[in-house]
UniProtKB/TrEMBL annotation, chain A:
This is ATP-binding cassette domain-containing protein. Keywords: ATP-binding, Nucleotide-binding, Transport. Residues 2-211 form the ABC transporter domain. It comes from Alteromonas genovensis. It holds the Pfam family ABC_tran.
Length: 212, 615
């Protein structure tokens, strides 16, 4: 798995916002930095398929040679994570993760349940299944949010300043943990951030966008 | 551009490169057009048709007879004789003046009251309590509010009882000052009572929109730093940004005020009445030729509404003109004490009115004998309620059946319409039409287009009475359901949708599994609002069914003209309770629906403690 952005140019109206030409290898975490307004989040929206007017793009976005631009957002296999965990509050932890699991793979509910238990066990969050998500701490929420993203078995993951709302001590911990999870699964990831410590920790290529 | 990690340098393009044409601009949009979106776009067009066609047909349907074309009585020549005849009718100018005067004055006063209340309470905890105090008059149908006022203000009404200490005062108490007065003061009073909470609520909902709330908070800080008092900040900084957003709803209130039928019918003078009431009488006249006069009067009613709007806009211009000079003077206070005093007086007046209205209506509906000037009825009986409960069964089931089907289908159409919006951001023909279409039924007086609509309905599907009343209710319910839900949609964090889509769920799946559950509260409130609007419809129900389908509201108005105060009181109580049940149900359901079960938490308590520490 590798995420390739070939001659990608993003426009706001008819003005060029940013241009990129890069390949993110499997297990690599590409960091994109830049001041606000430089189009970092817009870049992620283009890849995930959420680009809305007045933005548009040219060039190609592909994973292992498959062009993503011809796919609607829900068929791209691209997971996104934001500053906030955005856990669905009308579901428990288990339901949140089960919501993300591809139904074709797990044919029964009980198999999904087992898989959830295994995922939680692997990250020492045992027996959290039936917790109401609003009762979780900030760190727990971010971790469940990543587990949910991974449960969908994405081809690539986009991270939109996912650690910026955590306090410093927790941030480092969650960051290491998140990157480990992504590397273990060999998923190419694109991280957008303000924090240069994120880039150092990610260890992959880093691109700094200039403001337009 | 700099690289932290120089191993593989990403190629970057200089900004000076000639711009290549965006390739995927249109392709992206066509991708999004799945099944779900196609359904949503269809729903949007259906909604637009439901709003525009009845109103347009209705206006044509009154315009033709007004111009002398009415084949049913052999009139088929276009001319202005009908109008000439109309202006010869005795008292026509008084009728027109009464409509214009009561409507404009009531709307201006209601707006001022709402702004005074907001200026004092907009940053305090009292605001939510204020909404509770005002809500009974907000949800009570106009007819119900008017009848309640009769009970309070009539010569033997509750207030007369309160201020009369011996029975010898009966004689003087019979000379009622307030009710049915030829100046229309009682009409203005009822309209102000009903419209102040509405204007207030519209303003609060505008002020709670995230962007505007942020702006207001910023202005408040800046204003405070410059030494302005909170009340001065409201009038000088907050109102100028809020007012443009509520101008259209305010004009809808104005049009309703100049052209509504039930309030002047119950509270207003009879000879001459307001123009809208006259239109009602002329249309229902046995002599069919009166239809021509009624139609021309309905067209004049539209003219009055337009004129009232012009007057209102002129009033606004005047306020802005003097407001600007006033702003430049830079006074830090604006007779704060007087404004606070008015606000608290208004609040007290509302509390007194609500409490005494509830007491009087309930007491009257149970009273065996209640002689003047006693404040408490002599004895209690169930007789009236037994009579009412027998009689109300059919109207009540009609009301509920109609309300539920109208409000539910309006809700479905509105939700789908809102779903179709973000994909075509305001660029399509339908999106441009929508704001106009939504306010069309609210800006064209009901008395004007409903008769024309009925005329067409009689031509096409004569016997489909339920369908006709359904359409007429939809015309009024859709705008309110839409306006109420659009606020919640604007506040919704769309990243939830992005996350759910990126987890591989289809747009339809995301709508049903994520968006509906997360928005369940506002959706149920919009449904309850739709119910309340449908419950309160008097003229649309009466006209489209020709009286064949009675609802609680049409019965209440009919009874108000009758002799039994007891039955009338009981009907108003039912009118007040029904929308409250709707909102209560919405509140209860939104607290239990789509909530993860909490029972399992207690069994996992031991693990809970552990996992909290583990972070």
């Amino acid at each position: 798995m590798a995420l390739t952005l070939r001659e990608l140019e993003i426009f706001k109206g008819s003005a060029l916002l940013l241009s990129l030409d890069v390949t993110v290898d499997e297990g690599e975490i590409l960091t994109v930095m830049g001041p606000s307004g430089s189009g970092k989040s817009t870049l992620l929206q283009a890849i995930a398929g959420h680009l809305d007017t007045p933005f548009s793009f040219s060039g190609s976005i592909s994973i292992d040679g498959t062009n993503l631009a011809s796919q609607p957002p829900h068929r791209r296999g691209v997971g996104v994570m934001f500053q906030d965990a955005l856990l669905f509050e009308h579901m428990t932890v288990e339901q949140n993760i089960m919501f993300a699991m591809p139904s074709a793979k797990y044919q029964t509910k009980s198999r999904k349940r087992e898989a959830v238990a295994k995922l939680l066990h692997a990250v020492e969050l045992d027996e959290m299944q039936h917790r109401v998500v609003t009762t979780l701490s900030g760190g727990q929420q971010s971790r469940i949010s990543l587990l949910r993203t991974l449960a969908a078995e994405p081809q690539a993951v986009l991270l939109d300043e996912p650690f910026s709302k955590l306090d410093t001590a927790l941030r480092q911990h969650i960051r290491e943990w998140t990157f480990t999870q992504l590397r273990e699964r060999n998923i190419p990831a694109l991280l957008v951030t303000h924090d240069s410590a994120d880039a150092v920790s990610a260890g992959g290529q880093a691109i700094e966008l200039s403001s337009c | 551009m700099s690289n932290f990690n120089s191993q593989s340098t990403p190629r970057s393009r200089p900004q000076s490169k000639p711009l290549s044409k965006p390739l995927y601009k249109n392709r992206n949009r066509s991708l999004a057009q799945g099944h779900f979106n196609r359904i949503a776009v269809c729903a949007k067009w259906l909604l637009l048709c439901l709003l525009i066609i009845p109103v347009a047909a209705g206006v044509i349907g009154v315009f033709l007879p007004a111009m002398g074309y009415f084949p049913a009585i052999g009139a088929n020549q276009f001319d202005f004789r009908v109008f000439a005849a109309l202006f010869d009718v005795a008292g026509i100018h008084t009728m027109m003046w009464l409509s214009l005067f009561t409507g404009v004055v009531a709307t201006v006063i209601a707006a001022l009251f709402a702004f005074v209340l907001l200026s004092v309470f907009y940053r305090s905890q009292m605001l939510s309590r204020l909404q509770i105090v005002l809500s009974p008059f907000l949800v009570l149908p106009h007819a119900g509010a008017a009848i309640a006022l009769v009970f309070l203000l009539s010569p033997s009404g509750f207030f007369a009882r309160l201020f009369t200490f011996n029975s010898s005062a009966i004689a003087s108490a019979n000379e009622g000052v307030f009710l049915f007065d030829s100046y229309g003061i009682s009409i203005i009073l009822a309209l102000v009572l009903k419209e102040t909470p509405f204007v207030l609520l519209m303003a609060i909902s505008v002020m709670s929109q995230p962007l505007i709330r942020e702006k207001i908070n910023g202005y408040f800080k800046a204003g405070t730093a410059l030494g302005y008092s909170p009340i001065a900040i409201f009038f000088k900084l907050v109102l100028p940004i809020v007012f443009p957003q509520i101008r259209l709803p305010l004009l809808a209130v104005l049009v309703f005020a100049v052209s509504n039928v039930e309030i002047p019918l119950i509270l207003g003078p009879n000879d001459p009445s307001t123009l809208a009431v006259a239109v009602l009488h002329w249309f229902n006249h046995i002599d069919l030729s009166m239809r021509l006069q009624a139609s021309s009067a309905a067209v004049v009613q539209v003219g009055i509404a337009v004129f009232a709007i012009i007057v209102m806009l002129a009033v606004e211009k005047g306020f802005t003109f003097y407001g600007k000079k006033w702003l430049q003077r830079g006074k830090r206070h604006v007779t704060d004490k007087a404004i606070s005093a008015i606000a608290y007086l208004l609040l007290i007046a509302y509390v007194v009115l609500v409490v005494s209205a509830i007491y009087t209506l309930v007491a009257f509906s149970f009273a065996k004998q209640w002689t003047f000037p006693n404040i408490i009825p002599a004895d209690v009986t169930m007789v009236h309620w037994n009579t009412v409960l027998d009689a109300v069964l059919t109207p009540l089931s009609n009301t509920v059946l109609l309300g539920v089907s109208v409000s539910f289908s309006a809700l479905v159409l509105v939700l789908l319409t809102l779903e179709s919006e973000p994909l075509n951001t305001g660029k399509t023909r339908a999106s441009l039409l929508l704001p106009t279409a939504l306010f069309l039924p609210l800006l064209v007086p009901g008395v004007a287009f409903l008769y024309g609509l009925v005329w067409f309905q009689q031509l096409i599907l004569k016997d489909a009475v339920w369908f006709h009343v359904y359409v007429a209710h939809m015309v009024y319910v859709i705008p309110y359901v839409y306006l109420s839900l659009a606020v919640a949609y604007r506040k919704f964090d769309n990243r939830y949708v992005m996350v759910a889509l990126s987890l591989g769920k289809s747009p339809m799946g995301v709508f049903f599994l994520v968006k509906l559950p997360l928005l369940i509260g506002p959706i149920l409130v919009a449904f309850a609002l739709g119910l309340a609007i449908s419950f309160s419809q008097y003229l649309p129900t009466l006209l489209t069914t020709g009286g064949a389908i009675s609802t609680v509201t049409t019965e209440a108005v009919a009874l108000a003209a009758g002799s039994s105060a007891r039955l009338s009181a009981a009907y108003v109580v039912i009118q007040a309770v029904m929308p409250l049940c709707g909102f209560g149900l919405a509140w209860w359901l939104s607290n239990i629906l789509f909530k993860p079960s909490t029972t399992k938490i207690s069994t996992n308590k031991s693990s809970t403690g552990k996992s909290v520490r583990s972070v």
